[in-house]
Amino acid sequence: MVVNYYRPVEVFFGEGALDKLGEVGRRFGFRALIVTGRESARRSGALDRALNSLRSAGIREFVLFDEVTPNPTDRIVNRGAEIAVKEKVDFIVGLGGGSALDVAKAISIVSSNEGSAWDYVKYPEGPRLIPYYNRPVICIPTTAGTGSEVNRYSVITNEIRKEKLVISHSLNYPKVALVDPDLTRTMNRRLTAITGFDALTHALESLTNRVENFIAEEHSVRAVELIARWLPVAVEDPENREARRWMAYASMTAGVAIDHMGVALIHAMEHPVSAHYPHVAHGEGLAVLAPYVTKFNLKGNPEKYALFAKLMGYEEKPERAVDALLDLTDRLGLPNTLKDLGVEEEKIERLTEDVYMLSRHSFSVNPVEPTLEDVRKLYEDAYHGRV
Ligand SMILES: [Fe+2]
């Protein structure tokens, strides 16, 4: 079997990596667009550090775009792209959680090509437009979960259509990732838990789905091992630098794994949930769905689920994978049912249809290919809490 392994993102990893921004930015020009959220990077001091680094490298022209929200929309991307074009920026910096990084990358595509953000998202039939150019992007994550700093994905929500889809294209890679684990120390417990669970789900789904890539799989395995050990520590002791360092690394490495092997049904079923209920964080939705979908999937890849259980510190048996997930969500204080998340029972039909309309391409890579009836039943079980 021939496997492909492609790594186009240059990584600087370690405490202080943020301060490389000016030096790295200089390679791309003198006018920067800084993409971030309204508050957290400002409050934590990360934004000031980023701007100082740019200034000290002689980059004095920058435009701040601080309108990124969780579950970011295509409208936010389009607005950022308009600014990038109007201000003729040379490069884009994404500073923040997965949303800021995803938006920075998508702005690069939209500001450099025709059309708008929704033209580039991938429906099962493919995107409406293919980009042919991009602007350089530097990604600086302040959470440990998404892995967006090293992969080609941007997850974008369309509020009007109530759809959450992914831009997935080789031009959507950032040029450079500055991964500074110190930036994640200001995350509170809840954010640490939900973003960390996202990283774990990336590792779990890439490890167990039907895409084979033994090189990338090393990343999934290592990520599970590290998250099992360090996520509870990071949640319980937020200042613990070792835990923060290993979680930043695990998140990045799981981001590489999904870049090659993709995700599967847990993500396919989560996206409609946070599309219809934008108050639901991606990681929370995953935490609720993961045990149910995993139980359904076990027979499709018992060997890998047994390995996952072992890496999580359990007996090497496939069914123990479900226990590992349930115990972890309990320990992290994450919700257990869709009802807890505020999902309405009468919405299950629509969520099921959306999985088919928007994500059915993931059915064939899922360990067990589901029918729509299976998906509906999984939502019902997750709603009532019947594992
Ligand atoms: Fe995810």
Give the strand content: 5-15%
How many domains would you count in the coordinates?
2
At the first level of CATH, the class of the largest domain is Mainly Alpha
Q: How would a textbook summarize the main sheet? A: 6 strands, parallel
CATH topology of the largest domain: Dehydroquinate synthase-like, alpha domain
How would you explain this protein's 3D organization?
The chain is of the alpha/beta class. The chain has two domains: 173 residues, Rossmann fold; 198 residues, Dehydroquinate synthase-like, alpha domain (Up-down Bundle), CATH 1.20.1090. The protein contains 14 helices and eight strands. A six-stranded parallel beta sheet has the order 1-8-5-4-2-3. A hairpin with a 4-residue loop joins strand 6 and strand 7. Fe (ii) ion (FE2) binds next to helix 6.
Please give a handful of descriptors for the protein shown.
387 residues, Rossmann fold, Dehydroquinate synthase-like, alpha domain, 2 domains, two-stranded antiparallel sheet, 8 strands, binds fe (ii) ion
Concise summary:
By secondary structure, the protein is α/β, with parallel strands linked by helices.
SSE map:
Blueprint (H helix, E strand, L loop, with lengths): L9 E4 L7 H5 L5 E7 L2 H4 L2 H11 L4 E8 L5 H13 L4 E6 L1 H15 L24 E5 L11 E6 L4 E6 L7 E4 L9 H20 L5 H23 L4 H21 L3 H12 L5 H16 L4 H10 L8 H13 L15 H12 L12 H13 L3
Parallel strand pairs: 1-8, 2-3, 2-4, 4-5, 5-8
Antiparallel strand pairs: 6-7
Helix pairs in contact: 4-5, 6-7, 6-8, 6-10, 7-8, 9-10, 9-13, 10-12, 10-14, 11-12, 13-14
The structure holds fe (ii) ion.
